[in-house]
Design brief:
Elements: E1 5-10, H1 20-29, E2 32-38, H2 52-71, E3 75-80, H3 84-92, H4 98-117, E4 123-128, H5 136-156, E5 159-163, H6 169-181, E6 192-195, H7 199-207, E7 211-215, H8 218-227, E8 233-235, H9 251-263, H10 269-284
Parallel strand pairs: 1-2, 2-3, 3-4, 4-5, 5-6, 6-7, 7-8
Helix pairs in contact: 1-2, 3-5, 4-5
The structure holds zinc ion (2 copies).
């Protein structure tokens, strides 16, 4: 039986890296059928930062990437966002006032929400909180932008990919409190994805009805498989940057890893089908 593989958080960079069509072609050869393709920050594509317009350019470029991956025969969820690290970069490198960074992030998210409502995008991502040490007001700015993005899940069922600090229960508790403050009790929670989740954070997120996507690297996949029900999905978080090749992993390497684990009997095919097909169908409303 052919193993179908879904990569629920991945990037592509047609300017510096392989780009979506080559990635999709190679992933498909190894059993890939679905990819949630998430935009990168403007400077990753050599787009000079010139305010809001730079993010509009990112979305245009990313929509073309999503289309090209689809043309290779993959099912795609197309997401664009405002990465928490953008907050730091905009303040440090571009000398934008913190208040203006907040305003920009909110404006970008509102723009993305409109595109999602119109069906142009499937969701917003990445948004969230920095996973490294930074100043308190910057974390709060990133959080405020994340909370604004979650309204799009509440109101329009948009998929939201959260990039967070991965501290297990407290990470999930803080997101859950924020989401409930929006008056969104149990509404569209499965459309909110804790991306790059470690097994501990994934378990807490799933227990509260959220979705979790675990990096498809050997250590984390084996830990997740041994500890969790087939209730999480897997991601490559491939950044398609030739200066950091294979970071975090290649989608096709993730597929090969699953094949090896299946052959070694570490996992059975029904477990893999649940996480690569059934769950993806449920969260993203697509079928192979
Ligand atoms: Zn991330
Ligand atoms: Zn990412």
């Amino acid at each position: 039986m052919r193993l179908l593989v879904a990569d629920t958080h991945s990037h592509s960079n047609p300017i510096r890296g392989l780009g979506a069509s080559r990635i999709a072609e190679r992933f498909k050869k190894e059993g890939g059928w679905f990819m949630a393709l998430v935009s990168l920050s403007p400077w990753a594509y050599n787009i000079d930062f010139e305010g809001f317009e730079s993010y509009v350019k990112v979305v245009d470029l990313h929509l073309r990437e999503c289309k090209e991956a689809e043309e290779e025969g993959l099912k795609i969820a197309c997401l664009a966002g405002f990465h928490p690290a953008d907050v730091d970069r905009l303040i440090d490198k571009y000398r934008i006032e913190p208040g203006n960074v907040l305003e920009l992030g909110l404006r970008v998210v509102e723009y993305l929400e409109n595109l999602c409502r119109e069906g142009v995008l499937d969701g917003i991502g990445e948004v969230g909180r920095q996973h490294y040490k930074t100043s308190p007001e910057r974390v709060l700015i990133a959080s405020a932008i994340m909370e604004r993005a979650m309204q799009a899940a509440r109101d329009y069922g948009c998929i939201i990919h959260l990039h967070l600090e991965n501290s297990g229960k407290i990470t999930v508790e803080l997101v859950d409190r924020a989401y409930r403050r929006l008056g969104a009790d149990n509404k569209a929670t499965s459309r909110i994805v804790f991306h790059h989740a470690n097994p501990k954070t994934a378990m807490e997120a799933i227990a509260r009805g959220y979705s979790a996507s675990v990096p498809g690297i050997p250590r984390l996949v084996e830990a997740a498989i041994s500890r969790l029900e087939p209730s999480f999905t897997l991601e490559s978080d491939h950044i398609d940057d030739p200066y950091r090749p294979g970071t975090v992993t290649y989608p096709w390497d993730m597929a090969l890893l699953l094949k090896r684990l299946l052959e070694r009997g570490v996992v059975d095919s029904s477990y893999l089908e649940k996480i690569n097909v059934d769950l993806v169908e449920k969260i993203y409303k697509v079928s192979p």
